[in-house]
Design brief:
By secondary structure, the protein is mostly helical. It has 26 helices and 7 strands. The strands form 3 sheets. Strands 3-5-4 form a 3-stranded antiparallel β-sheet. Strands 1-7 form a two-stranded antiparallel ribbon. Strands 2-6 form a two-stranded antiparallel sheet.
């Protein structure tokens, strides 16, 4: 089979672990073009395939990568030796050979930085003495723009190796190259380059997170003021997170925390932390069911009830009883199973219609008992019964009022108008205005109406009372399109709608805002710092500390004899890397009380803002409540 040609960008170099690896050979060839090609390929692969990139796998790779960065450290990137100056900005141009060497050094350092992110490579680098020589070299490099990129890569390597790095004692003189911790702190505190300051603060946090380096935490470190300076930069999330982590790392140590209470920016720090938490608060809607599901029914159209015409009324007046009652019931009521009418309604309607014409009625009017008895005769399926209620009612079952047919019919001229039925109330009103325009009437001519007016124009307003309302009345936009019932089995339409029980709310859901379950990490760090400051300011607010036992809280090596010399004890603990305050003088206690007073004053200034902080987590919310209760004990 023909061998496949492998192009320059496809070689499987990471499988070739022999001394003849093309990348290593090109890197150590000394030919600028070959070195540039090897560094370009190595930088691409170390970034794209970091977990599979191992320095130890290719013999001689580390030697080639350290060559140019160490040259930079020795020669100040070729600038100091060339000009005798530390500032390359004063140069018009850099010679080509120096520029190539600087390019090789930066690319080699980038590859080492990518490789250090792999744990195996980190162990390889920490065991190589040249690593500390390289990293320690940034202490002697001028902090100029020409060295910024080189120093930034070195500090990123420090950050990657921090968990494996043990810094020497602060007071001890280093006998071998080490990470320049003080230089990194100074860079973080003084650099105007954003990336360099960010990398430096991140490296300091990583180094101090190693428990063996906690002896380097100092209350006088300038990086604390720098971190406070970056707290208002809420739009730059990485820089803000680094500043918060730096503050938390330092304030997690009790001596530094107590000393920080005397810091001139302590009160402003508390304000900024509270402002950050309140600004980053995010809420999400939460819905709960507060009542059973709402039962509704469609709205029934409003149809006017049937009214007697003038001719029908005159015929009934001339009809003797009991025939008059039977014919009147047939015109005004219908037999309707499932419905009912009260006996009072029957009699009241009969009396209202015929009492004004009592003298004209042939044979007089019937009494209430006779009218009720005739209902069963007219409607055989009806029955006069007593509804026990409550309330108790005397009703006629299976009967209901007749509804008006053609509600927009003109009944002018005492019901003699021959116009057709109109389609709307507006059309009927226009037609009535035509009747009134024919003559100046003072008496209403609508059916049986006897209304009198003093002026002809006043009759125009009166006739509006005779125009029926629409079947569906206009509703406010907030009203639902259906009728809400008290419960599911409640009858609809109700025979007594005005006596219906109050229905539940139109909606059974209550929606309100609650904090999101996972606040931003910056808010959590800010809350942790606030809690540390609160504990230092209010030492009596939390649970009582355990009493000193003979084992010194489980650390018998820290036991001191009652009459031991304090100077010797301090010296012994300094050698062990453990700083234990042994001075219990009145001056120390007074200073602590002053710090607590300053801390309390700072929390009192932000107490109103603390009440606005909401946390979904119960433990975090209890921290806020504890702070508010301690600051304002009268409100608890």
């Amino acid at each position: 089979a023909q061998k496949r040609h492998i192009t320059d960008g496809e070689e499987l170099w990471y499988l070739d672990e022999t001394p003849l690896n093309r990348m290593v050979l090109a890197l150590k060839s000394g030919i600028d073009e070959e070195v540039s090609w090897a560094l370009y390929r190595l930088s691409s692969v170390s970034h794209a395939h970091g977990p599979r990139f191992f320095l130890r796998a290719m013999l001689g790779l580390s030697d080639g990568l350290f060559e140019w960065p160490l040259w930079w450290v020795r020669e100040n990137g070729g600038i100091g030796k060339l000009t005798g100056r530390a500032d390359p900005q004063e140069l018009w141009s850099i010679p080509k050979d120096i520029k190539i060497k600087r390019k090789h050094a930066l690319e080699s350092l980038l590859i080492l930085r990518n490789a250090s992110l792999n744990e195996t490579n980190a162990q390889t680098l920490i065991a190589d003495r040249r690593t500390m020589v390289l990293l320690g070299g940034i202490e002697s490099l001028p902090k100029t723009e020409g060295n910024t990129e080189f120093i930034s890569h070195c500090i990123e390597i420090v950050n990657a190796l921090a968990s494996l790095t043990v810094l020497p004692f602060p007071v001890a003189k280093a006998n071998k190259p080490s990470v320049p911790y003080k230089t990194i702190v100074e860079i973080a505190a003084s650099s105007n380059d954003r990336n360099l300051a960010l990398n430096s603060m991140t490296a300091v946090v990583s180094l101090l997170s190693n428990p063996q380096n906690s002896r380097h935490v100092s209350a006088s470190s300038p990086i604390i003021s720098t971190a406070i300076k970056y707290l208002p930069l809420t739009m730059d999330r990485p820089l803000l997170a680094a500043a918060l982590d730096c503050l938390f790392t330092h304030l997690s140590h009790l001596p530094v925390l107590k000393e920080f209470l005397h810091h001139p920016e302590m009160a402003n720090t508390v304000k900024l932390l509270v402002a950050l938490i309140t600004t980053e608060q995010r809420q999400t809607p939460k819905t709960i069911q507060i009542a059973p599901p709402v039962q509704t029914a469609p709205e029934m159209p409003i149809i006017p009830l049937y009214q007697l015409s003038q001719e029908e009324l005159q015929v009934l007046i001339n009809t003797p009883e009991p025939q008059r009652s039977l014919e009147w019931m047939g015109k005004m009521f219908l037999e309707a199973p499932g419905h009912d009418e009260t006996q009072v309604n029957f009699w009241s309607l009969y009396r209202e219609i015929f009492t004004p014409f009592a003298e004209q009625c042939v044979g007089g009017l019937a009494n209430a008992a006779d009218v009720i008895k005739k209902i069963v005769v007219k409607f055989p399926q009806s029955a006069a019964v007593v509804d026990p209620g409550p309330p108790q009612r005397f009703i006629i079952k299976n009967v209901r009022r007749r509804e008006q047919d053609g509600i927009y019919r003109c009944r002018w001229n005492k019901g003699q108008c021959s116009a057709d039925i109109f389609g709307s109330a507006l059309d009927l009103h226009v037609h009535l205005l035509g009747h009134m325009a024919e003559s100046d009437l003072l008496a209403c001519q609508w059916a049986t109406c006897t209304h009198q007016t003093l002026e002809p124009g006043a009759l125009r307003s009166h006739v509006l009372t005779h125009i029926p309302s629409p079947a569906f009345r206009m509703k406010h936009p907030s009203q639902p399109p259906t009728i809400t019932l008290p419960d599911k089995p409640y009858p609809h339409p109700s025979p007594q709608p005005t006596m219906r029980r109050p229905p539940p709310p139109p909606t059974n859901l209550l929606t309100y805002e609650v904090p999101i379950p996972d606040p931003p990490s910056t808010s959590l760090t800010a809350l942790l710092i606030l809690r540390l400051l609160f504990r230092a300011s209010y030492p009596d607010s939390g649970p009582a500390p355990p009493e000193n036992d003979e084992n010194r809280f489980g650390f018998p090596m820290l036991h001191l004899e009652p009459h031991a010399n304090k100077d010797s004890a301090n010296a012994r603990h300094a050698l062990q890397g453990v700083m234990i305050p042994l001075d219990d003088s009145d001056e120390t206690k007074r200073k602590e009380r002053e710090g607590e007073a300053l801390g309390k004053k700072a929390f009192e200034m932000v107490s109103s803002h603390l009440t606005k902080v909401e946390m979904a987590d119960e433990a975090l919310a209890s921290w806020i409540e504890e702070m508010v209760d301690a600051v304002n004990p009268a409100t608890t």
